[in-house]
Amino acid sequence: MPSNSNRSKFPVPHALPSYWRKQVGPIDRHRSTPRLPSSADIVVVGAGYVGASLAYHLVEESARCGRKVPEIVVLEAREACSGATGRNGGHLKPDPLLRAASVLSTHGKEVAEHVASFEARQIGAIKALVKREDVDCDFEETRVVDVCLYKKGKEKIKADLERVVDADISTARDIGYSEDREAEQVSGVRGAKSCLTYDAARLWPYRLVTHLLEKAVSLGVNLQTYTPVTSVSPAATDAKDHRWLVTTPRSTIKTSIVIYATNGYTSALVPEMKDKIVPVKGIVARLVGKYAPRLTDSYMMRISDYEYDYMIPRPDGSVIVGGAKRDFFRNLNDWFDNSDDSSLIKGARRYFDGYMQRHFYGWEKSDVRTEDVWTGIMGYSNDGFPYVGPAPGRPGQYLCAGFSGHGMPQIFFSAKAIASMIVTGDTENVDLPVPYRISPARWSQPKEHVSLKLWREIVESEPVRATL
Ligand SMILES: Cc1cc2nc3c(=O)[nH]c(=O)nc-3n(C[C@H](O)[C@H](O)[C@H](O)COP(=O)(O)OP(=O)(O)OC[C@H]3O[C@@H](n4cnc5c(N)ncnc54)[C@H](O)[C@@H]3O)c2cc1C
């Protein structure tokens, strides 16, 4: 199978529209100044959730430390929040269990606790932010009903739950567990083998991010949309203050600090990230119906080792569903190392038709149908953790990328950690879990990508399954 590795890794023009971006705000095509400044203290590349959170926290952290707010320029290749954040599922769903169980084995209890609570705490932080700043983003706290539909998955979940409970990981205290008939009753899902419930939230990500950007711009941050960064290169060797040249088709900016908030596109500017943060294409739909029961909780549906769907109900009764791997997972080039969000994933659209009727008791006769389908590019990291912190061998450059399709409960605090590192100069004593940090070994060691490894295992072990 020919690979996608020679394809451009930059954002493509003409991305498909998404439900969340049907009505865009005034910041969407914003340029704070007609021309780019020739220099800046900090250049942030990318205006998604990471770029917006960085701008917000850099201003906040500077004020908190009594420092002058630095000159910050945010450069965005397309419209503001036009990447994954403007096209995701809107699920702010911390993982209270599986990641903590895995980190218990690799790093021990203290780090497992940090990894789990780091995600869980972001619900409260976003709730407080939304309330404090009156952000109109449909933020709602919810329970997640996390359903497992296959025996092997159920056994692993049960074993992991025992381990995190035994280790007294704080997020385990919130988890409800049921299995078999009771799991079907709790979830309403036909064939549920087990069911976890725990706290999460859901929201309209585009609106949260554009609020953060608007606030940052009002406090002096310079946002420039339609300004792709084509390279970052060293300035003349005697440059003391501005050691990096950030080049765009419009002009070049001299700066001392560059932060890559570039998600799946990072390797286009930082070649060391090739095979480490890989663009992965995902698909999401919005289902609507007049005569349908109302879903109140959010859901995870674990169907096999590689198939998991997630869904959030919207205040208007529609349901957002993401996943659909059943129909494209085997065709590696259609989704892995693929940064083209100008077309849907081949063959995946039909997956959502009849989804609620197939899975949920009581929905069989509903008229729910697929209204919108869209796609987006995630940055999947090779070891499952984002790369957050100073980039080895690139003094003054930072990464905050690779959140692997799970950025909503990780990004706000990761960006805060980077802002704190830059403002205080202390890169160690920040609230950032150890596996997120970029050690020289993690930076340079080749490690087979977890998604590629799983794909190989599945295609080698499973016969082709019918997709009807
Ligand atoms: C279909 C889909 C569904 C998802 N569902 C969920 C979910 O329900 N819950 C969850 O937690 N996560 C979900 N995710 C993942 C989540 O959306 C991401 O983790 C998160 O949005 C990443 O934010 P970001 O700012 O890093 O990336 P992005 O939002 O992609 O922002 C990166 C920005 O950088 C810009 N950029 C890149 N390169 C350059 C360059 N060279 N010059 C200038 N600008 C550049 C891009 O144009 C883009 O706007 C989903 C993702 C997708 C695609």
Anisotropy-based shape: globular
Strand count? 17
Low-confidence stretches: none
Radius of gyration, taken over Cα atoms and rounded to an integer in Å: 22 Å
Report mean pLDDT, rounded to a whole number.
Answer: 95
Report helical residue fraction: 25-40%
Task: Compile the SSE list and pairings.
Elements: E1 39-45, H1 49-64, E2 72-75, E3 91-92, H2 98-107, H3 109-132, E4 140-148, H4 151-166, E5 176-179, H5 180-187, E6 194-202, H6 205-218, E7 222-224, E8 231-234, E9 244-247, E10 252-260, E11 277-288, E12 298-302, E13 308-313, E14 319-322, H7 332-335, H8 355-359, E15 369-381, E16 387-390, E17 397-401, H9 411-424, H10 440-444, H11 450-461
Parallel strand pairs: 1-2, 1-10, 2-7, 4-12, 10-17
Antiparallel strand pairs: 3-6, 4-6, 5-6, 8-9, 9-10, 11-14, 11-15, 12-13, 13-14, 16-17
Describe the structure.
The protein has 468 residues and is of the alpha/beta class. Helices cover 27% and strands 22% of the residues. It has a domain at 19-87 and 206-277 and 383-448: FAD/NAD(P)-binding domain, CATH 3.50.50.60. Helix 2 (98-107) packs across helix 3 (109-132). The mean pLDDT is 95. Residues 10-11, 45-51, 75-78, 82-85, 87-91, 228-229, 261-263, 265, 268-269, 282, 284, 310, 322, 376-378, 401, 403, 405-409, 411 line the site of flavin-adenine dinucleotide. This is FAD dependent oxidoreductase. InterPro entries: FAD-dep_OxRdtase (IPR006076), FAD/NAD-bd_sf (IPR036188).
Please give a quick description of this structure.
Residues 41-420 form the FAD dependent oxidoreductase domain. This protein is of the alpha/beta class.
